[in-house]
Each structure stands twice: as structure tokens, then as C-alpha cells.
Write a structure and sequence with these properties.
Mean pLDDT: 95
Number of domains: 1
CATH architecture: 3-Layer(aba) Sandwich
Distance between the termini: 40 Å
Shape: globular
Low-confidence stretches: none
CATH class: Alpha Beta
Length: 243
């Protein structure tokens, strides 16, 4: 890694959207910290792909739901210099109608999407402020805007990110730090390919197709760039016109 390279931490960087985001950032010249929890091997595969294309990346693994473990991992990363961007992409589904949802399901989804965001971003803010540069992007969902049957826990956790990010944007704007949300719609990937028939896609999405991970990743990469320095506190939908 060159000393002048900016570093970006992508939580959930081993998944479809996370991997696309890591590749987009590496393409733009970032040194990418590809985060995983249980699936470090997939993060290592993303790193190998980035390096094979001439980019710069490394894999990191820690449990975002564990505050102490996350802080310790981030402090180790900061020993090598500032982390200039955080893309909080990590999230899980544990779907059920609210009337039959177990408390464990409610808490588990929030632990990753919402509490994990706090655990990751909080120790990075003062180092970003000292560097007078920071980019924070939280990956939400169209479900946070529209709601979705069986996903009250997921929609609640993701919509809570909107308020947290808007507040954070106001707190840190004077330090050269921006905070934004990207809210994808239905995106191609392992989680969606078996769920939606072509007919259902046409009913749900004005664009009449799923989005691609690359289309979302390019928006995230823009928000991390110098060109987006005056875009702050925004929720940007990438959903083909769903919302």
C-alpha cells in the first residue's frame, strides 16, 4: 500500500453487494479493507480478485455485534494510519410477520445493521476529524422507506440508520466528513435470485428489472469520492423507481 493511499473499510465486504463495492473503491484508487465475520474465506477471495486487477486490498474479520471486539479490531487498523471511509454494508434478514416474530429475531437484525453501525463508526470519527477528511456511507434498503411484509425488524433497523446518518452529517460536516445513506431496491444476488419471478419483477419495479450490485456500488464509490464533498445527510435510492 502506498503511503498516500486512502483506506476504506467495507463491512459485509464478502457478500454480493459488498464485494462489488470493494471492487469499485479499489478501481478508484482506495486501499480497501474487506470485512467479514464468519466467512473470511470469501473476503480473501474478493481481495485476490482486486489484487489480480491491480488494486490494493486486505481482508479483516471481526464480529460487528461485539462492541469490544470491533473496537479492538479498528484500533489495530488505525495503528497503520487513518481509515478515511466506512461503508457499512453488513446486514442480515430474519423474516417473520411481526405478530409471530421472536424477540431474538428482532434483536438479531438490529444488532448487525444498527448497533453494528455504531460499533464501527464511533471509533473512526475522531481520527477522521483529525485528518479533516471522512466518508461514511450506510447501506439501507427500499424497505426502510416502503416497509415490507415479514420484515418489520429489517425495515426498522434500516430506517433507524437514516436518522443516525442525518444527525451524524450535521455533527461532522465542519470537519470535512460526510455521511450519507444508499438505499437499494431489489438487486441481483444470492439472496434474491430465487425469490422473484419475471412477472413479479415487472409488477414491483417500474424499470422492469432488478438492479445490479455494480449499479449500487458505483453510487457508493461516488459518495466516497472528492466529487461528492457537498453531498451530505442524504438518502439516495437505487431502486429502479420503486420509491
Amino acid at each position: 500500500m502506498r503511503k498516500d493511499m486512502r483506506r476504506a473499510l467495507v463491512t459485509g465486504g464478502s457478500g454480493d453487494l459488498g464485494g462489488a463495492t470493494c471492487r469499485a473503491l479499489a478501481r478508484d484508487g482506495w486501499h480497501v479493507l474487506v470485512h467479514a465475520n464468519a466467512n473470511r474465506g470469501r473476503a480473501e477471495a474478493t481481495v485476490s480478485q482486486i489484487r489480480g486487477q491491480g488494486g490494493d486490498a486486505e481482508a479483516v474479520a471481526f464480529d460487528l455485534t461485539d462492541a469490544d471486539a470491533t473496537r479492538a479490531a479498528i484500533e489495530r487498523l488505525l495503528e497503520s494510519g487513518p481509515v478515511h471511509a466506512l461503508v457499512h454494508n453488513a446486514g442480515i434478514h430474519d423474516d417473520a410477520p411481526l405478530a409471530g416474530m421472536r424477540e431474538e429475531q428482532w434483536r438479531r437484525v438490529s444488532d448487525v445493521s444498527l448497533h453494528g453501525f455504531f460499533h464501527a463508526v464511533q471509533p473512526l470519527l475522531l481520527p477522521m476529524a483529525r485528518a479533516r477528511f471522512g466518508r461514511i456511507v450506510a447501506v439501507s434498503s427500499v424497505a426502510a422507506t416502503l416497509g415490507n411484509r415479514g420484515q418489520a425488524n429489517y425495515a426498522a433497523a434500516k430506517s433507524a440508520l437514516h436518522g443516525a446518518v442525518k444527525s451524524l452529517a450535521r455533527e461532522m460536516a465542519g470537519r470535512g466528513i460526510t455521511a450519507n445513506v444508499v438505499a437499494p431496491g431489489i438487486i441481483e444476488g444470492n439472496m434474491t435470485k430465487e425469490l422473484f419471478t419475471p412477472e413479479r419483477i415487472r409488477q414491483l419495479i417500474p424499470a422492469a428489472r432488478m438492479g445490479t450490485p455494480r449499479e449500487v456500488a458505483d453510487v457508493i464509490a461516488f459518495l466516497c469520492s472528492d466529487a461528492a464533498s457537498y453531498v451530505n445527510g442524504q438518502v439516495i435510492g437505487v431502486n429502479g423507481g420503486m420509491a
